[in-house]
Amino acid sequence: MNGRLVSQAEAVLPVNTAAVFYATNVFEGLRAYWNEKDGELYAFRLAEHFARLRESMKMMRFTVPYADLDLYEAVRDTLKGNDLREDVHMHLVAYVSGTGLDATSPTGLYINPRRRARITEGSGLNCCITSWQRTSDNAIPIRLKSGSNYQNGRLATLQAKADGYDAPIFLNQGGTVAEARGRPSS
């Protein structure tokens, strides 16, 4: 978190930050795969994830103080510091630690590594069409990976689970399929 390895208990944000109060954050989900033969973790497409993170930060008008080299080092330090020797999924999150709705800086960064098994073929999902409509990209840019954008999916997922399904399928404003999840959350 912000250049230091810290415990989960130490990784906290003040409640009055824009990140907490207004969900002013962007993120990328990064995967790294353990190769037993090589004794190495191999991260998947970091350059593309870093470019999308940077684009999301620009769209949210964050101050962007991170070069790709900084991000590569942060991922490497996180993986090495947690002594991971298995497949892992990480959330790389950039957030505004300033206060107020119009805050764009200072920008913080954390990486939250979580052990997660590989996705296997043949594990289907029991899905439903949700009554929640997929948010229009011209209302809030859905291509933006921001915590606030996930409330639409969260509400639909809660509805699907309450109705006995694994996951929702969204329709758009025209009534056609717009989005579905690839796997249930864990």
What key phrases describe this protein's structure?
single chain, 186 residues, alpha+beta, 4-stranded antiparallel beta sheet, 3-stranded mixed beta sheet, 4 helices, 7 strands
| Low-pLDDT residue spans | none
Mean pLDDT over the residues: 89
The count of DSSP E runs of length 2 or more, i.e. the number of strands, is 7
The neighbouring-strand order within the major sheet is 2-1-3-4
Query: What about the largest sheet?
Result: 4 strands, antiparallel
Q: Please work out how many helical segments DSSP would assign.
A: 4
Structural write-up:
By secondary structure, the chain is α+β, with helices and mostly antiparallel strands. The protein has four helices and seven strands, in the order H-E-E-H-H-E-E-E-H-E-E. The chain has helices at 18-21, 46-59, 68-81, 150-162; strands at 25-35, 40-43, 88-96, 107-115, 127-129, 167-171, 177-180. The strands form two sheets. A four-stranded antiparallel beta sheet has the order 2-1-3-4. A three-stranded mixed beta sheet has the order 5-6-7, with helices on one face. Strand 1 and strand 2 form a beta hairpin. The longest helix has 14 residues, at 46-59. The radius of gyration is 18 Å and the shape is globular. The protein starts with 17 loop residues before the first helix and ends in a 6-residue tail after the last strand.
In short:
The protein has about 190 residues and is α+β, with helices and mostly antiparallel strands. It has helices spanning about 20, 45-60, 70-80, 150-160, and strands spanning about 25-35, 40-45, 90-95, 105-115, 125-130, 165-170, 175-180.
